[in-house]
Amino acid sequence: MLDPEKCCMTRFPAPVLAEKAKPIETIDDSIRRLAAKMIDLMVEFKGVGLAGPQAGVDLRIFVASPDGTRENARVYINPEIEPTGPLQSVEEGCLSLPGLYAKIRRSSQCTVTATDLDGNRFTETAEGLLARAYQHEFDHLEGKLIKDRFSRIQQIAARHRLRELMEDYETPSS
Ligand code: NI
Q1: How far is the CA of 53 from the centre of ligand 1 (A)?
Q2: Residue 173 domain-assigned?
Q3: Cα(103)–Cα(45) distance, integer angstroms
Q4: Percentage above 70 pLDDT, the chain
Q5: CB atoms within 10 A of CB 112
Q6: Total number of domains constituting the chain
């Protein structure tokens, strides 16, 4: 049973980050509380987006805010995404892969269609950083992390940091 208050930031190699998340069938109070908790985590960890699996929940929901503020945060449930525009290679990080940054090729624009917390379907078109954030968060719902998009050379460069994260995961401090 979903307990949004217990959700916390989930880091690689937590298995939920590698799974395909499941559609949300009913938008009830637990989903509204989950969305609020995810916005809290995004703001606390200074991200511009956060996906369900990053809060430890295998559901198709992400939150995003173009400037990382709570005021501009929006909730995207069961999103569909259509990347458009030319590919651009821009440096990216991920709250679930702290300390790892690499240039990732993504479309410079995209259209997202999703359901909001009132159950209404809406469509949004974005470009630049926000378009990138949508594609990054959608990847999370497919069980895909930036490391899965690394080139062979980027994989080699990331090996040490990935090993550290695996060791931290096995022997949590605190
Ligand atoms: Ni991420």
Answers
A1: 9
A2: no
A3: 21
A4: 98
A5: 24
A6: 1
Domain holding 12: CATH number?
Answer: 3.90.45.10
Residue 59 pairs with which residues in a beta bridge?
A: 22
Amino acid letter, 133 = A
Residue 34: predicted pLDDT:
98
Active site residues: 137
Report CA(61)–ligand 1 centroid distance (Å): 13
- Residue 174 pLDDT exceeds 60: no
CB-based burial of residue 123 (10 Å sphere; 0-12 exposed, 13-18 middle, 19+ buried)? exposed
Q: Average of pLDDT values for 115-119?
A: 98
Q: Identify whether 174 is part of a domain.
A: no
CA of 152 to the centre of ligand 1 (A): 20
Question: What's the rounded Cα separation, in Å, for the pair 64 and 41?
Answer: 11
Q: Which residues contact 27 (CB under 8 A, 6 or more apart)?
A: 77, 115, 117, 118, 119
Q: How far apart are CA 116 and CA 79, in angstroms?
A: 10
State in Å: Cα 28 to ligand 1 middle.
25
For residue 65, being part of any structural domain is answered with yes
Domain that holds residue 109: 4-168
| Residue 62: inside a domain | yes
Question: Tokens representing 144?
Answer: 């895909």
How much is the average pLDDT of 45-58? 97
